[in-house]
Specification:
Radius of gyration: 21 Å
Shape: globular
CATH architecture of the largest domain: 3-Layer(aba) Sandwich
CATH topology of the largest domain: Aspartate Aminotransferase, domain 2
Bound molecules: pyridoxal-5'-phosphate
Low-confidence stretches: none
Strand content: 5-15%
């Protein structure tokens, strides 16, 4: 059998974390859960109202459009123009997704054969490597330079020659690193030179601070010759449960995805597409208060760590802190110590690949006072 079987895929670290969390709760422990990256804020009212209207609309009760509902297409095209100055023909360049996680998996599955290579950042959101293994392809990890850019020079030429997809994720989960449009242009040029589809995962497009506007790969002139980019409502609009996302870019890749998806299912739920249309249409009103809340949380927890003698930089983007495991602790040992002594649940860096060893991630998904409590507990646990 040439395909990698499901059983050959290593266990999901997040499941192990779930088990530890459940065991602590069963012992009666109160937890401060900053392990998971699921936004705790409400779905915006304008989105709830749009979904309510859509649910009651007889015209929307049938199967959804395969590619995208026209209202969602139009809202996405207007958003991309307003936010990034990018003009697209949504009929050819855009596809609705039921979340970017499964969209990324589908894009990988639609563009790889067994034996192909997918280039994945060495610290990565797990689906990049897992969908690659499901496809029977090989994930090859791209090392980071000290500033978080990818070290393309370090890649093995023979493996690059077998690559069909290359994934970049800026701002990165869990690294929080951002890059400029010039750096994205370097990845576009590399992908074009080697005939690889460049997949930019832009899950954190709106969660940035201090006047920094996250760039899109489509701002690189000619990027749609070789690139696609996934966007999602999950983080920007507190809509992780709605499963509304889209992919935009290279028309051929969109057509391949459409072929893949239409053979195994229907289009994305019309309710989710209507919700996505409302969110992207009203992005300029919805995003600022959400970002303001994350900024307050970020500043509070960073100040608490620094007051405790740690040296923590405030990230410019995302909803995470990516920190060093204190000396003398193994990765799981540190996670378990925190749960047992402080009730704080964090994610070990190895959840994001071997190169994440020695780090841990905190999600800013609790209000400031709890985050400060978590930071104080962590600082104390490291001293003992
Ligand atoms: C980098 C990155 N990409 C994609 C996703 C998936 O988001 P969704 O499937 O909710 O759109 C996440 C979620 O945490 C993420 O961190």
């Amino acid at each position: 059998m040439s395909r990698t079987s499901l059983s050959a895929i290593p266990p999901y670290v997040f499941y192990e974390l779930d088990e530890r969390r459940a065991a602590a709760r069963a012992r009666g422990q109160q937890l401060i859960d900053v392990g998971i990256g699921s936004p705790d804020g409400p779905i915006p009212a304008v989105v709830v109202e749009a979904m309510q209207r859509a649910a009651a609309d007889r015209a929307l009760s049938g199967y959804p459009y395969f590619q995208a509902h026209p209202a969602y297409r139009d809202a996405v095209a207007a958003y991309l123009h307003a936010r990034f100055g990018v003009t697209i023909d949504p009929a050819r360049h855009m596809h609705a997704l039921a979340g970017s996680k499964e969209g990324i998996a589908e894009l990988i599955l639609a563009h790889t054969n067994p034996g192909d290579v997918v280039l994945v950042p060495e610290v990565y959101y797990p689906v990049y490597a897992r969908a690659t293994l499901l496809a029977g392809a090989e994930p090859v990890f791209m090392p980071f330079l000290p500033d978080g850019r990818l070290d393309l020079e370090a890649l093995d030429a023979a493996r690059v020659a077998r690559a069909t997809v290359m994934i970049v994720n800026y701002p990165g989960n869990p690294t929080t690193t951002s890059v400029t449009v010039d750096e994205l242009a370097r990845y576009v040029a590399f992908a074009e030179r080697h005939g690889i589809l460049l997949l930019s995962d832009l899950a954190y497009s709106e969660l940035s601070f201090d006047g920094f506007a996250v760039p899109s790969v489509l701002q690189v002139p000619g990027a749609d010759r070789v690139a696609v980019e996934t966007h999602t409502c999950s983080k920007s609009f507190n809509m992780a449960g709605v499963r509304a996302a889209f992919v935009v870019g290279n028309a051929e890749a969109i057509a391949r995805l459409d072929m893949y998806r239409s053979n195994i299912g229907y289009g994305v739920s019309t309710l989710s597409q209507v919700a996505g249309a409302a969110a992207f249409t009203h992005h300029a009103d919805i995003v600022p208060p959400i970002v303001a809340e994350y900024r307050v949380r970020r500043d509070a927890i960073v100040a608490a760590f620094n007051a405790g003698g740690w040296s923590v930089q405030a990230p410019r983007a995302t909803m995470y802190l990516w920190l060093d495991v204190p000396e003398g602790f193994g990765d799981w040992e540190w996670v378990d110590t925190l749960i047992e002594r402080t009730g704080v649940v964090v994610t070990p860096g190895i959840a994001f690949g071997e190169a994440g060893r020695g780090k841990f991630r905190i999600s800013l998904v609790q209000e400031s006072a709890k985050l400060v409590g978590a930071a104080n507990g962590i600082v104390g646990a490291a001293r003992r």
